Amino acid sequence: MTRANFAFCGAELAAVYVLTESGDELRLAEVVGDRGGTYGLPAVVALGGRSPATDAYRAGRPLWLSPAELAAYVSTDTRGVSPVGAGTLPPKFSLGALPLGHGATQVGCLVVAGEMADGFDADRRSLLELYADQVTAGLESVPARVVGRAGPRAHPGPTLVPLHSGAFTLTLDSGLMEADARVLELLGIAPEDFDGRVETLLACAVPDDIPALMAVVEPGRLSSSGEQLAFRIRRPGGELRWLGLRCRLRLGADGMPERVLGVVADAVYLRPTDDEVAIVQGLSARLAGATTVRDVSRTVVETLRRPLDASRIAVAEVESDRLLVTVLDPPEPDAWPGVWQTEWRSEWPDASVHSLPTLGSALRDGHMSLWPPGADLEPGLLGIGPGGLAVVPLPADGRLVGVCLVGWDAEHEFTPEERSLLTAVAGLLGSALRRAHALDAGHELARMLQRSLLPRKLPVLPGGVAVARYLPATAGLEVGGDWYDVIPLGDAHVALVIGDVQGHSAAAATIMGQMRTAVRAYAVEGHPPDVVVSRANRLLVGMETDLFATCLYVDLDMEEGIAIFVRAGHLPPLLRHPDGTTEELVVEGGPPLGVLAETEFSMTEAGLVPGTLLTLLTDGLVESARLPLEDGMQQVSEALAASDPSDIGRVADELLGTADGRDDDVAVLLLRYDGTRVRPLRTHWTVWRLSNAVLHARRFAGRTLRSWGLTDEVDMALLVVSELVTNAIAHTQGEVGLDLTLSSERLRIAVNDTSPRSPVKPADVDWEATGGRGLLIVEATTAAWGSVPLSGGKQVWAEIDVSGGGRG
């Protein structure tokens, strides 16, 4: 079809007027089907003047003129000049002027004309309005500096008006379709081969695009305002062609959906260039060798970074209403909005789609969304691309598997080549993610099991910050046995544990879970570090398993900075001092757990000053078939020396940055020791089992509290001391100890005894009885109280609020 015989839905002429840079004129950019200039359309019309194009543009809605209405319109021009053109209008000549774009995004006006005695009917008007939307899409893809400066185009080449376009009507109750010859020509179907079934047309589409095409006509998806979709077809000769589809729903007299009107046009602005084809072909080849989700994501980022010149690229999988982030580029946390920093830096990186409603809406639509500079977006998206943002859903097998976000800092104008490249990459990336996810199923199972066995979050510590990272092995599909834990203990102590069970199997993971639970239980009971490790060793020996485990246990006094280390066949810890120097701490070691039942484990003491970074790790980070242990430890030491301990989470991420392709699990536990600003006052008293033991305990407590500057709380504290010591003397045997601790806010009174039985508060007290009220009195006079098990006994404690009192 040539421009001379252009015709569409009764229109024999189509002219595109575009808004000039000055914003006060519409300039004729292209005209087709003009019969050699018979109609003489004006080259420029003032936006404030009177013409069908300017009237429709200002009103923001189509203007339809029948022959009689057009004649009246021309005759009312006060200047005596035809607002349509200088030529003579043929008889029965009808005209339509349709604005291109909507509201603030209007870019021009489309004028169509044809010999229609009664004007354009309702169906033709709807189809021409859809056709105008196709023109708008093509016009938006052409740089503004190219359009409308050189006057109407008369030369061969890409056209603003889709010459290859056709219309169809789909009857919903019967499923029959009427398509004109131009639709069939676009799809490469001979008219005699078309059977009126929509399935025949769908068979021409690329398989990846068929689900989106079918979804367009699903109940509830279409509206009377229209839908749009770009899709690909494979013509009989093998040529791949981009087509644009726009649909509109027609309702019957009863208000029910009756027909679908559609326009199909050749979307030349989506055709890839030779460079884009080379990029897509190269990406396809590289994705074929990517076996993990992270490999797929990084491959796409590396491919798109240079041609798009983007500031940020993110790839995430979509699972239910969560975004599982696989790659953020650049990797620096401060390069991303706060919501992405928070979610990304968590133990298990994911984000809720509900926190980004605009993104959620784009994903529900399933189509690529391009947001220009200054778009009204929530901060979590606007911060990714203040100069422009592309949201590219990633489809595979008829469902959405992920999303790619591309953002620019500087003002960015989306070119047709970029649209084409992103659309082509979306299908490749979606299929590659689905394939990698299937290959990653074993790793995902390992991650899920690991998440259930490892602590989800680490506790908040007074005087320090702890973070941990864990990565399962990428070689093989078995579950590993690395574990870590942070256990708050009494008296401002904390236990740090890291370990590794031999092998990769469900048995190793089971042993790992049991060992972590056992070490935590022994530590909370109050055993010394060597006893904790020794009991865990005997427990593993008693399990009669062939597996053994290594372990490094640290008891750290957060107030004094004194750390006690016990090492059982594990790697030694690394210390980064405040001045940046790093050392491998020499810790006397013992055999791994589970080897010898009767083994003594030595303790090594070291002092930490505020600002020290303590690093515990497993051998998966520093040793592999390609990396000797000594070299790996040296690399980690150098990375620690060059790190900024003020952001300890980032330090942990940097340590894992070179752990790709690992054949073993990796666990890292870091603690930055800051020290406490105010050290509590502590003292201990051994209660003698005498007839007046309570009296001596009260005298000791009174002298101590007065020396600490407490006055108002003394009477209450002595009452609590009396009750707790009396219970210990009366109901237990062996040694009884009294501990007093004063912090800036509370006084803690603790009584230790050798009975493991916890005290029980009476449910009903006979007030004529001489006993049984002690714990009720303690509960009524203190801010909190409780009981914790200790090695060979228990501790009953109570706390009194002294935040308003003084301290000497």
Automatic annotation (TrEMBL):
The record ties this protein, via Pfam families, to:
GAF_2 (PF13185), HATPase_c_2 (PF13581), PAS_3 (PF08447), SpoIIE (PF07228)
Q: Where is the PPM-type phosphatase domain?
A: 460-673
Specify whether Transit peptide is a keyword of the entry. Answer: no
GAF domain residues = 292-443
Query: Which InterPro entries does this one have?
Result: Bact_Sigma-Reg, GAF, GAF-like_dom_sf, HATPase_C_sf, HATPase_dom, PAS, PAS-like_dom_sf, PAS_fold_3
Q: Does the keyword Hydrolase apply?
A: yes
Q: State the UniProt keywords alphabetically.
A: Hydrolase
What PANTHER family does this protein's entry cite?
Answer: STAGE II SPORULATION PROTEIN E, STAGE II SPORULATION PROTEIN E-RELATED
Q: What is this protein called?
A: SpoIIE family protein phosphatase
Q: Which organism is it from?
A: Streptomyces xantholiticus
List the top taxonomic levels of the source.
Bacteria, Bacillati, Actinomycetota, Actinomycetes, Kitasatosporales
